[in-house]
Design brief:
10-stranded mixed beta sheet; 260 residues; alpha+beta; Alpha-Beta Plaits; 10 strands; globular; 2 domains; homodimer
Chain lengths: 260, 260
């Protein structure tokens, strides 16, 4: 039974998140339904796919990675085209596909996740980017946010920055990198946060960006991020920001399955 | 009666274009309705505003400029905020406002219009940018498109590149600049065309970009753009491309009304 890796881009707005749910639309459910149009799956005709990151409701992806097992041998390009045909008109696109070994796993083989968070600062409401950015009205200080972010890089107990619903065994994670870039737009300024780690805790990125926004606004001194981290107490976190600015931007594997 | 210049950003999809129409939604109509919430207009309570460019159905703006006359003296910032409040939830935003002289006119005082056209090249359907780019599947040659575009810069009879419905007195226009930039995206490649002229003919940008796409795809040699221009014949034009990649990106005036 050949296994295929799928690289997936999606707009999170119409979905209750990646994970299949009984009575709500999900990205996983959309792709599994499209797969069932190609060939019946092993469980009463249904397919089950696994993904590198289970994104929350409203969170987008530029390059989520999932895998599926199929009975037929598919040419990867034709599999991608056929799935995109059946996914229409949903805002989910298979942007790459590749055959992988039977022991390759989209989630367990992954060694790195990369997230992007887009924060738009301006008074007037967003029009083209509505639902694709988190918008605030107050100006933000880039250097202060970078100073705050620097305290979070490395191996730490991230209890402060994870949801109380988080199911990870341990709150200790290594955050490899946070970069923040400021981009002048025709109207307003956009800040792009990029975070990279082997894995993230539930709501970790939104907890970090929401906290750094408070630093950028001048409500928090940058040093308070360090104190909040050391407290290892969810109550010490800044406000968790909304999902619409968040993108799963990429997943790293020991060997890139889509290369070549 | 003080006059105000308004800089307007909008998403073109829900509108039949800029211009007010009796029975279809328009950007002009949306702003005039919002103005009437602030104070009654001079014609049976209605307002009439003028704009630098009357964009077609589905065309977007980053910085359209319009003007309105109001009875009350408004602080420009408060006028912008009040209009944005009443424009919600439509994807129309007043991104700047300024008081101008009573002889200043958004259309007749303008000395330059700038358009942006976004063309996305990839197989998989767009998700985040759906309706905000024109998407094609075939690869395009940047240098060939630049070579083709070079034939169009300067003062020419643009009969080939204007709609047969165009109401301009003369087909002779001076195109000051076309630049084409290629941007690598996570999936696919985006080409950004930027055109600058004192004024444009109806469908001129879409006729030019549609023709250059044929050059980029290898269907037209770049030289054929020159021949098509010289023919001064609408039938010599390449296919007119769809409106969803087109943005009115800016309007130039002898003095920027929004400066300072």
């Amino acid at each position: 039974m050949p296994r295929y890796a799928l690289k997936v881009e999606y707009h999170g707005a119409p979905f209750a998140g990646w994970q299949r749910q009984a009575d709500q639309p999900s990205v996983q459910g959309a792709i599994e339904t499209a797969l069932a149009k190609l060939e019946p799956g092993p469980q009463d005709g249904a397919h089950t796919i696994a993904a590198a990151g289970r994104t929350d409701a409203g969170v987008h992806a530029l390059a989520q990675v999932a895998h599926c097992d199929l009975a037929r041998d598919w040419e990867a390009f034709r599999l991608m085209e056929a799935l995109n045909y059946h996914l229409k008109p949903l805002p989910v696109a298979i942007v790459d596909a590749a055959e992988v070994g039977e022991d390759w796993h989209a989630r367990f083989s992954a060694r790195e996740r990369r997230y992007l968070f887009r924060l738009l600062v301006r008074r007037a409401p967003a029009t083209h980017d509505k639902g694709l950015v988190w918008q605030v009205k107050n100006p933000l200080d880039l250097q202060a946010m970078r100073d705050g972010a620097a305290h979070l890089v490395g191996r730490h107990d991230f209890t402060t920055f994870r949801s109380t619903m988080c199911q990870a065994d341990s709150p200790v994670k290594t955050l490899d990198e946070i970069t923040i870039e400021e981009i002048a737009r025709e109207t307003g300024v956009e800040f792009r946060f990029r975070l990279r780690a082997r894995s993230f805790l539930h709501n970790q990125v939104r907890s970090i960006v929401g906290t750094l926004e408070r630093v950028g606004a001048g409500s928090w001194p940058a040093e308070r991020v360090k104190e909040a981290l050391r407290a290892a107490d969810r109550a010490a976190c800044g406000p968790v920001c909304p999902p619409e600015g968040l993108y799963l931007a990429g997943v790293g594997y020991p060997e890139d399955p889509f290369e070549g």
